[in-house]
Amino acid sequence: MASEKSGSLSLEGFTFSESWEKKRKRAKKIVEILTKTHPREKLLIGDPYRTLIHCIISQRMRDEVTYNVWEELFKRYGDIETIATTPVEEMQKFLRKSGVGLWKTKGEWIVKASQIILERYGGKVPDSLDELMKLPGIGRKCANIVLAYGLGRQAIPVDTHVNRISKRLGLAPPRVQPERVEDYLRELIPREKWIYVNHAMVDHGRAICKPVKPKCESCPLRELCPYAKGLVTDEDIKGNSKKGGK
Ligand code: SF4
Atom 4, ligand 1: which residue's CA is nearest? Predict the structure, then answer.
């Protein structure tokens, strides 16, 4: 086997044995197949501010509801200047009436993040993960979403689909945190493909590699997937394995 480590990443936590070299080759093929199966010719590379607000609203929300509320919010308030000067209570009321969960917190985040972007960054959404993560309501996943889909940078947002599928595919050890999953994917997948990974895995997760009962028999990744071969299980991913993570 090749060296056990690649940077700060280790092969120790995987449930099966595979060198970095083989993993990289497999990852490359997986991404090729995924982007062919779930093509997105035009990725949503748009306004970073609107992407950021969308991400705040979307937390623990269904996509359709998020989209409608987001659209309505911009119809009603228009731009960052108006949103930044809207009283927090008014924004909270709007979100609550629109059926948004965590409306109180999100209302505050939306107004405060807008004020900070105006005051500290001259109205321009910052172009760095660290700066983005200083904004209220913006964690690592949202920061990566803004970088990828708002600014067109190569970034890999890790949401629940990317986390689960990467682990089933043995591209990240089953027990690591999403932040670490991102590190493994960045290590294994060629940089110019990073921007496609989230979209492709989200589509794949909705259509085939579902949280419960993934459709392995009809999956185009079957031959490349350790989960389909019984080498990784959902119990491993939940951390209930008796194998001790090896
Ligand atoms: S073979 Fe099964 S577990 Fe593997 S990616 Fe496909 S659906 Fe998911």
Answer: 225
